[in-house]
Amino acid sequence: MANQLKMATIDTILTLHRRRWSIRRIALALGVHRDTVSRHLRQANQAGAPAGSDPGKLGQAPTGSAGGPAPAEAAPASQQPSLCEPWRAVVLVMLESGLSAQRTRPAMPRHKGKVESGVGYVKDNALKGRVFPSLEAKNQHLLAWEATVADTRIHGTTRQQVGKHFAQVEHPALQPLPRERFPGFHEAVRTVHRDGHVEVSRAYYSVPPEYLGRRVWVRWDGRLVRVFNERMEQIAVHPQHERGRFSTQAKHIAAEKISNCERGAAWLLGQVRRLGQQSTRWAEALIETRGVEGVRVLQGLLALSKRHPVDAIEQACGVAASYGSYRLRTIRTLIARHAPAQEQFPFMTEHPLIRPLTEYTRFVHTAFQKEVPG
Hints:
By secondary structure, the chain is α+β, with helices and mostly antiparallel strands.
């Protein structure tokens, strides 16, 4: 008889079903039709055991010898958590509201044919072979097609008119929509790089240091980038940046890993103030004169304080400031030479070599008199 299976195969079907194998997977593994697998599962549920089998051995795979011990149930090959685990709370809420959930493999449209068939129907019936000048024209065509074609057809499964069935049966069962708009965002899994950042659209965003090398979930919507851990707890939020940019929050980087240059000119000036007044005056004039280029010079000045006495640095900064020289090379040279400060000469208004202004006035007057004809 067709589709009549051996008891060993039936027992294997029941065993795999208890291990939460899907009907499709059982059929592929045993080389039988899905309807046959479904029929034997229904018979087992109705009768408690297939005909002719020992209820005490229901679901035990045959061992090849009568009365032999049943083999131990094989451990699952992979202990990785389900990809649906981050949405457990959301799924439970949807189930409580009356919806149903069915797990399917990613990028497997044939696993959810009832959902995907509608997409194919629209493509083949409403859009195939048509070109529209604008999105508005395309939307108008789809609205008219839905009212005149899609809603008036007889559904292949229910054998009822789609629009009439929706109005009489489905519409009264619908619940009101939430007041807020449904969130729209992109989502993906990322691994935290060694520098403590994750990549999103060629830009980089920092996360707390304890997640270094771990997998995190990232959502971005064009305005914000949100990072979640494996329990879907938010651990970081950044404004989304253009490609090549870094967004680094101070709390995400350990203090030992922040360079002096990253701390900024204000922090460096605070460190220079500990050296003395001359160093502070020279450093402030340096930043005012050279701008951001002076940040690395301040780093060099602080490095010199670890190898030379503070008094020598103070004297060198005072001399360099008097000459208006704001380069680290000048400070190093002055420390090595111990050069004295430039002498400031007072401006003299009277001196034996300087003629009084009255003589210059008389000289100019005489010159003008010679030019005037007599």
